[in-house]
């Protein structure tokens, strides 16, 4: 009886490990995002979409009041980024989103009304 | 995500940088940091930072677990009552008891640390031999050999004279130090294989300081339970009685040695053989310790401990296998031929040549991590010609010529050639590099082409 119980627990633990690994390492965003996916994602996340055109207009008008956040990887940022943008690398996995939330909060600063543009 | 944190004016530009750059809007770049690890890598010791702390914690736990083996466990009441006797003889209280306990631990630490330092010094003489596949095989074989003793296939015995001298008791503080000194001798049949296995490992690292630290930690783990029990002698009765469960603990130590052996020969196995081997060992250990072994104990927590250990091993195996399965395809390599080089020049693609050997740990790491990174693979497929040169065996005339031509001093060496077939010396790599930094180098050579 005892060994049956532990065998069951072991099976559960193994399944849990495999599942957790798969969940956290799987990409949250589709590989080639279509425009509709982008819009749906924005709606789910509660943020707005800005086109590059609009962004550049705002950027020219008032680049100081705008916080540009580069979410790509460090090597991408290093080879070229929008002038004035700050780097905050994010991997598109659930694990990364969960782990980096507190760091992002300090990174963005205390002003909650600030205009922030991620790219 | 920022919205959840309470920010209100959050936007995202899904086209982002490429479009921005395409319109000629102001950009910046910071190519600095590329030259950081070019030539002459700094080699951090085999253990540093967190790895060190975890290793020491593991060894401490191992030391504590050694107390539960059949040679040491029955000695605990004797040792503790000995302390008690010493203390009452001198007619003093708890203070003396503490000092006796400390003396005992000191003695224990002295023998063990000395062993550790000597082993690592002899290992240091061997120098870089740990990179040698034969040495790796021997170390692994020794570890497995000792593990069979822990599984109960043979018994380690010391000359009886030595054991006799060791069990003789002396009085006073020196007596306690002496008891600690000789615990290793008395308990050799159980501790010996594990300690010798650990010694082989320390010898491989070749650092006397590490040898000392590791064995000092082991002694602390070994001595601490005795010390605490001596402090609270009244608790002695609550200890579970000796029994078959101690054999189980011995087997656990045996599996730890087998695991270490598997870890050692990992770089020798081609491809992912190493990871699979470690996973298989964990699987076997889990099944054996958790279910196949029928040791019984006369206390109720034992089945839980057993099941827990078995489950932990199975989870480790599942973790290794899943991470391996989730890893996508790697870079597809080509052998070095004149045609490949000509093709690269015709296609105006830069070439990356990886000089590697199967036994070299950083090469394997590069292959397993960096060259399996999805982004690196994508870049490599579209914009690069990837060439691999295996220099494990000497004597191949083509390889000899290439080593000469590019001035390769060791492995791994990764050479970046631009579209004209000229080497970019500033990008050359002679150590492991994580994927993000490797991508930086790939981008570095591509930018110069534009």
Q: Given the structure, what is the number of helices of chain A?
A: 5
Q: Percent of residues of chain A in beta strands?
A: 5-15%
Helical residue percent of chain B? Answer: 55-70%
- Mean pLDDT across residues of chain A: 76
Q: What strand line-up does the widest sheet of chain B have?
A: 4-3-5
Number of strands of chain A: 5
> What fraction strand of chain B?
under 5%
Q: Which regions of chain A have little confidence, pLDDT < 50, spanning 5+ residues?
A: none
H/E element sequence of chain B: EHEHHHHHHHHHHHHEHHEHEH
Number of helices of chain B: 17
What strand line-up does the widest sheet of chain A have? 4-2-5
Spatial gap, N to C terminus of chain A:
57 Å
Run of helices and strands of chain A = HHEHEHEEHE
Instruction: Give the CA-based shape of chain A.
Output: elongated
How many structurally independent domains of chain B?
3
Return the structural class of chain A.
alpha/beta
Strand count, sense and barrel status of the largest sheet of chain B are: 3 strands, mixed
- Describe the global form of chain B: elongated
Oligomeric organization of the protein chains = heterodimer
Helical content of chain A stands at 55-70%
Give an account of the 3D structure.
The complex is a heterodimer of chains A (119) and B (450). Chain A is an alpha/beta fold and 119 residues long. Chain A has one domain. Helix content of chain A is 55%, strand content 13%. In chain A, strands 4-2-5 form a 3-stranded parallel beta sheet, covered by helices on one side. Chain A is elongated and about 70 Å long. The termini of chain A are far apart. Chain B has 450 residues and is mostly helical. Chain B folds into 3 domains: 51-261, no CATH class; 269-326; 338-449, Glutaredoxin (3-Layer(aba) Sandwich). Chain B has 17 helices and 5 strands. In chain B, strands 4-3-5 form a 3-stranded mixed beta sheet, sandwiched between helices. The longest helix of chain B has 33 residues, at 94-126. Chain B starts with 9 loop residues before the first strand and ends with a helix. The model of chain B is unreliable at 32-46 (pLDDT under 50). The chains are: A alpha/beta (119), B mainly alpha (450). At the A-B interface, helix 1, helix 2, strand 1, helix 3 and helix 4 of A face strand 1, helix 1, strand 2, helix 11 and helix 12 of B. Strand 3 of chain A pairs antiparallel with strand 2 (27-28) of chain B, so a sheet runs across the interface.
């Amino acid at each position: 009886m005892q060994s049956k119980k532990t065998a069951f627990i072991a099976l559960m633990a193994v399944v849990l490990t495999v599942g957790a690994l798969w969940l956290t390492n799987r990409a949250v965003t589709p590989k080639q995002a279509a425009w509709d996916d982008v819009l749906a994602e924005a709606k789910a996340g509660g943020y707005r979409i800005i086109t590059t055109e609009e962004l550049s207009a705002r950027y020219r008008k008032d680049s100081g009041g705008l916080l540009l956040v580069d979410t790509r990887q460090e090597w991408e940022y290093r080879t070229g980024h929008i002038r004035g943008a700050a780097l905050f690398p994010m991997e598109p996995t659930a694990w990364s989103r969960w782990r980096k939330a507190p760091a992002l909060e300090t990174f963005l600063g205390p002003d909650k009304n600030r205009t922030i543009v991620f790219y | 995500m920022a919205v959840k944190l309470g920010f209100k004016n959050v936007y995202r530009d899904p086209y982002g940088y490429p479009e921005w750059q395409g319109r000629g809007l102001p950009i910046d770049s910071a190519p600095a940091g590329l030259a950081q690890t070019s030539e002459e890598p700094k080699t951090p010791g085999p253990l540093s930072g967190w790895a060190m702390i975890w290793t020491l914690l593991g060894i401490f736990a191992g030391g504590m677990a050694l107390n539960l083996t059949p040679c040491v466990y029955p000695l605990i009441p004797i040792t503790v009552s000995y302390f008690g006797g010493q203390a009452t003889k001198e007619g003093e209280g708890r203070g003396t008891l503490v000092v006796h306990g400390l003396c005992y631990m000191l003695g224990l630490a002295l023998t063990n640390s000395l062993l550790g330092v000597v082993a690592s010094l002899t290992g240091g003489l061997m120098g870089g031999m740990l990179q040698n596949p034969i040495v790796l095989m021997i170390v692994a074989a020794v570890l497995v050999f000792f593990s069979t003793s822990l599984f109960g296939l043979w018994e380690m015995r010391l000359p009886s004279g030595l054991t006799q001298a060791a069990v003789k008791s002396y009085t006073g503080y020196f007596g306690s130090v002496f008891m600690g000194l000789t615990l290793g001798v008395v308990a050799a049949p159980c501790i010996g294989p594990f300690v010798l296995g650990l010694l082989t490992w320390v010898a491989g690292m070749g650092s006397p300081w590490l040898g000392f630290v590791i064995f000092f930690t082991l002694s602390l783990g070994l001595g601490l339970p005795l010390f605490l029990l001596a402090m609270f002698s009244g608790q002695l009765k609550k200890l579970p009685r000796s029994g078959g469960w101690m054999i189980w603990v011995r087997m656990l130590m045996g599996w730890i040695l087998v695991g270490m052996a598997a870890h050692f020969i990992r770089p020798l196995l081609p491809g992912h053989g190493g990871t699979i081997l470690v996973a298989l060992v964990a699987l076997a250990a889990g099944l054996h310790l958790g279910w196949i072994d029928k040791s019984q104990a006369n206390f109720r927590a034992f089945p839980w401990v057993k099941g827990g250990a078995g489950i932990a091993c199975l989870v480790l195996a599942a973790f290794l296998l899943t991470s391996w399965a989730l890893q996508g395809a790697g870079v597809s390599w080509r052998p070095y031929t004149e045609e490949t080089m000509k093709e690269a020049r015709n296609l105006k693609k830069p070439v990356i040549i990886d000089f590697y050997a199967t036994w070299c740990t950083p090469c394997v790491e590069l292959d397993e991590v960096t060259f399996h990174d999805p982004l690196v693979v994508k870049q490599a497929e579209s914009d690069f010609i990837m060439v691999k040169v295996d220099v494990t065996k000497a004597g191949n005339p083509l390889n000899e010529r290439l080593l000469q031509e590019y001035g390769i001093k060791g492995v791994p060496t990764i050479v970046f050639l631009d579209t004209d077939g000229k080497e970019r010396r500033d990008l050359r790599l002679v150590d492991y590099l994580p994927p993000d930094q490797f991508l930086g180098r790939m981008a570095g050579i591509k930018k110069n082409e534009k």
